[in-house]
Amino acid sequence: MQRLSLYLRCFWRYRGRLCGQKRWDEQDEADSAKAVDAENRIPTNPVHHCTKQNDGADKTDFSYVYFGNYPQTEVMGSTLTEAITGASYDANGDAWVNGTKYRRISKSDTNYDGCFGDSAYRYFRWEQIKWRVLENDGSALFVMADKGLDCKNYFVTLRLILSA
């Protein structure tokens, strides 16, 4: 398991950028600033509230941090405008429309196209990734994405790695 360094508290001070991580463009930077609360509070460990009943009413309060961006919310219906569908998408399937970044995917971009539908493309809006803090030991955070972000094979090809 990899932990995120909180060296010099830069993790939350820089509103979503990890120390040493490549800067996102200015639009992503502005989105990061919106996602962090005004007080820049230090993320805390989860607090579990147990009712001691077997009724499923227990709950856990989590702290969250935001960093990174990923196409998460599908754009469809009346929000899927001609400006989005007719935009000039790059080789990765990304385009900017009125200050918002979108990802266009086709059936061939998926691992399983059985649920893709009949349209040629589907469109997703890039958004900040919300990370649930599972542990803060004072120098590192152990986090988990609040939503499932992608479904891709981890190892595309099988390789044998030998150590010397």
Task: Describe the structure in your own words.
The chain has helices at 10-13, 26-35, 82-85; strands at 4-5, 47-49, 59-61, 64-75, 94-97, 100-106, 121-136, 140-145. By secondary structure, the protein is mainly beta. The radius of gyration is 20 Å and the shape is elongated. It starts with a strand and ends in a 19-residue tail after the last strand.
Structural class of the helix and strand makeup? mainly beta
Q: Which range does the strand content fall in?
A: 25-35%
Number of helices: 3
The radius of gyration computed from the alpha-carbon positions, rounded to a whole number of angstroms, is 20 Å
Helix and strand sequence: EHHEEEHEEEE
Helix content: 10-25%
Q: State mean pLDDT (0 to 100 scale).
A: 75
Euclidean distance between termini CA atoms: 24 Å
Number of strands: 8
Low-confidence spans: 1-39
> Which descriptor suits the 3D outline?
elongated
Q: Which sheet architecture does the biggest sheet show?
A: 6 strands, antiparallel
How do the strands and helices of this protein lay out in sequence?
Elements: E1 4-5, H1 10-13, H2 26-35, E2 47-49, E3 59-61, E4 64-75, H3 82-85, E5 94-97, E6 100-106, E7 121-136, E8 140-145
Antiparallel strand pairs: 1-8, 2-3, 4-7, 5-6, 6-7, 7-8
